[in-house]
Amino acid sequence: MKRARRWGPAALAALPLSVLALAGCAAEVEADDSPLGGGPLDGSMAEAQAAAPDPRGQQLSHEEMQQALEDSLGRATITDTDDWWPTLRDLNRELQRLRVEPTDCKTYVTASALPVPPGALGVLAEMDESRTVVYTFTDAESAQEYVESEREGVEGCHEHTVTRDLGTEEVEAETTVTELRLRTGAEEGLAVRTVMEAPETVQRELTVLLRHGAHAVLASEPEDSEADQEEALVELEARAAAVLSAVVEEEILAPEPEPEPEPEPDDEDEDEGGDQDPDEDASESD
C-alpha cells in the first residue's frame, strides 16, 4: 500500500461533509470527509495530546491494522494516528470557528471531525473516493460507547447547518443525516446516508460502521444516484465486514434476508367457490 504524506498544520482530517466544505474555504484541505467520526456528544475537543499513545489494553498496533486493510482491500493510500496527531490542536482551533445550528449539535459535529475517537487508535485506507478506517479501543465497552454516541448524534442532529465566517462573507452548508436499515453479522452496526448542500455543490455519501469486540471499521463512499441503495449498502457492509473479520480473526457474515411471506388467499375467491349452487354441481356431474 502507498503511504500518504504527513498532513501540514493547516490540513483538516476526517471532517464531516459540511465541515470539510466550509473549512476548505480558508485553507487547503487534504482530508477524509466521512460523515461519521467519533466522540461523545458531551466530549471535550480540548483534550488533544502532544503525541499518539502506544497501544493499551485490547488495542492493536498500527502495523496489525494496516495488515488487515492490506489483506482485505489491496492497494490503497494509508495514514494512521501518528500522521494525524500533530494536526489536532490546529484542527480544534479551526473547528471552534464554526457556527452550528441547532447549537446542541455543535459538540457532535466538531467531535466527529477528529481523525479518531477519543482514546482510540486508527488506520485509514483511501482508494479513489472510497475510504475504510479501522478504529481500535482499549476494551469492548469503549468501542460500544463510540458507536452509541454516533447513533445518538445521527438521531439528534438529523438536520443541521454549519456556517463559517470568513470575515468578508459567511459560507453555509446544510446537512441531513439519515439512519438506514442494515443487516450485519457484527455485534453492532450503523448505516447512514449523508446529504450536504453548500454553495454550488451537493454531496451524497453512504457510510457503514461495524463494531465487534474492541474494534470498529467504518467504510464510506459517494452515493451513486443511479444505483440501488440497498444493494450499495450490502456491498459497503461486505467491505467493512471483510476488514473487521481480518482485524478480529473471525469471519463476520451478514445474515440472509428473510424470505418474503406467502401471499394470503383472496377472501372473495374463497367465498365465490363456497357459494356455488348445489344444482349446478349436480348438473356438472351428470
Question: Can you tell me the overall shape?
Answer: globular
Beta strand % = 25-35%
Overall number of structural domains? 1
Main beta sheet: 10 strands, mixed
Low-confidence stretches: 2-48
N-to-C CA distance = 84 Å
Radius of gyration: 24 Å
Describe this protein with a few key phrases.
about 290 residues, globular
Could you explain the architecture of this structure?
The chain is of the alpha+beta class. It has one domain (2-255). Helix content is 32%, strand content 26%. It is built from 9 helices and 10 strands. The protein has helices spanning 17-23, 62-73, 81-84, 88-96, 106-111, 140-156, 229-248, 267-274, 278-285, and strands spanning 2-3, 77-80, 98-101, 121-127, 130-136, 159-165, 170-180, 188-198, 201-212, 215-222. A 10-stranded mixed β-sheet has the order 1-2-4-5-10-9-8-7-6-3, sandwiched between helices. Strand 6 and strand 7 (170-180) form a beta hairpin. Helix 2 crosses helix 7 (229-248). Residues 2-48 have low confidence and may be disordered.
In short:
This protein has about 290 residues and is an alpha+beta fold. The chain is about 30% helix and about 25% strand.
SSE order and pairing:
Layout: E1 2-3, H1 17-23, H2 62-73, E2 77-80, H3 81-84, H4 88-96, E3 98-101, H5 106-111, E4 121-127, E5 130-136, H6 140-156, E6 159-165, E7 170-180, E8 188-198, E9 201-212, E10 215-222, H7 229-248, H8 267-274, H9 278-285
Parallel strand pairs: 1-2
Antiparallel strand pairs: 2-4, 3-6, 4-5, 5-10, 6-7, 7-8, 8-9, 9-10
Helix pairs in contact: 2-7
